[in-house]
Design brief:
The protein is of the alpha+beta class. It has 19 helices and 8 strands. This is Lytic murein transglycosylase.
């Protein structure tokens, strides 16, 4: 039997847990969520979803407030957790042990499924090592068990998320998947709602999924041929150029200005080579050196440099992260017989998301940064930071660190 004093303590503790978000309120406490859910019915109906399917999916559906990137009324806004490719340094994300391990397993799977992968390449123009590398990065070749129910994730993000319209649309397509016979049990997802062995959002499933094994349905959950052919078709739809590479690692000339590592600074491959950008690996260069390329220095002067081609951006359309592309590209190169990055990654520090957002706002106020405030050390942030370093006579390295942020703050106070 619990005494009165212990009961009071439990009440206080329960209130504290609710206040910090450890205990999720029931959806009934937020009737706005239920109203929002029911208001989706006309749009779901337009996609061919029956009332029975809609009601079965909505019955008892409660938002999962433990997901990242939510804005919940009455709860302090949590710093975004973010995907690893956006919050880790290149050295952390591109760990040699991880790349080597996935590449070794990828080579075995490539050999095992060579005939299927060759057929995929003949149909879509995408080499087998590339789609195998995507498979490895997304779900460790299908061995990683996705932790969330897609319906719950997409409804939660559609109502409470920071990209409501985007996830609202994906939720509707997830309902269509249920209507079209995909079992709810198969619809396990990442916290962002991506499904299957190669991680497709529901709308991407309808745009790109393919029945490659000929059994009458596109199965990106259990059929390796379907999953990898679907990934290849998505890349093809996004503009993959058959017979072309994605990037070449290069050694840059001494004194290179890192602010020319700009996707808009395009030159033919032959011009880069003539200017002293030397391939870092013994990879054969294409016969046609007229293909436009730009320079990428993802860690500023603290790591490898790359001449990137159109197919680089096609992979980036699969996942909008430079580090993701480098991961997939390097693993695919290793599966095809290549090796590690020739230049090691420097031990640099990634600023906190809030600090990077502050840096972006300060650079934007100076007219140097014109992209969205997202707290990521992406291309545009590095270029704006490099431009600031040049203007202020600071050491030019194109990497956002705490010292430059302090300089920005001091300059702002001085003005």
């Amino acid at each position: 039997m619990i005494g009165r004093g212990c009961g009071a303590v439990l009440v206080v503790l329960l209130a504290a847990f609710i206040a910090i978000g450890c205990v999720r309120p029931a959806s009934a406490a937020d009737p706005a969520f239920r109203r929002w859910l029911q208001e989706l019915w006309p749009d779901a109906q337009k996609l061919g979803v029956s009332r029975a399917t809609f009601d079965a999916a909505a019955a008892g559906l409660e938002p999962d407030l433990s997901l990242p990137d939510l804005v919940v009324p009455g709860r302090p806004d949590k710093p975004p957790r973010g995907q690893a490719e956006f919050v880790q340094t290149p050295e952390q994300y591109l760990r040699e042990r991880t790349l080597a391990s996935l590449a070794a397993e990828g080579r075995k799977l490539f050999a095992k499924h060579r005939d299927t992968l060759n057929r995929i390449e003949r149909r879509y123009g995408v080499p087998g090592p590339v789609v195998v590398a995507i498979w490895g990065r997304e779900t460790a070749f299908g061995s990683y068990k996705l932790p969330h129910d897609a319906i719950t994730v997409l409804a939660t993000q559609g109502f409470y998320g920071k990209r409501k319209d985007f996830f609202r649309n994906e939720f509707l397509y997830a309902l269509k998947m249920l209507q079209d016979g995909v079992p709810r049990a198969d619809m396990r997802a990442s916290w962002g709602g991506a499904l299957g062995m190669t991680q497709f959002l529901p709308s991407e499933f309808y745009r790109h999924a393919v029945d490659f094994d000929g059994d009458g349905r596109a199965d990106i959950w259990r059929s390796m041929p379907d999953a990898l052919a679907s990934a290849a078709q998505q890349l093809a739809h996004k503009g993959w150029q058959a017979g072309h590479h994605w990037a070449y690692e290069v050694k840059v000339p001494k004194g290179t200005d890192c602010t020319i590592a700009d996707p808009d600074h395009l030159r033919p491959l032959k011009d880069w080579l003539a200017a002293g950008y030397v391939p870092a690996a013994k990879k054969p260069l294409p016969a046609d050196l007229a293909e436009p390329a730009s320079l990428l220095m993802p860690a500023g002067l603290f790591g490898p440099a790359f001449l990137i081609l159109k197919n680089y951006y096609v992979i980036k359309n699969y996942n909008f992260s430079d580090l993701y592309v480098l991961f997939v590209g390097n693993v695919s190169d290793r599966i095809a017989g290549g090796g590690p990055f020739a230049t090691p990654w420097g031990k640099i520090v990634q600023l906190r998301t809030a600090d990077l957002e502050e840096m972006q706002r300060r650079l934007a106020a100076l007219g140097l940064y014109r992209d969205k405030i997202d707290g990521k050390a992406g291309m545009r942030t590095r270029l704006a930071l490099g431009a600031y370093q040049k203007v202020e006579g600071l050491t030019l390295d194109c990497w956002p660190d705490a010292a430059v942020l302090e300089h920005l703050r001091a300059e702002s106070q001085a003005r």
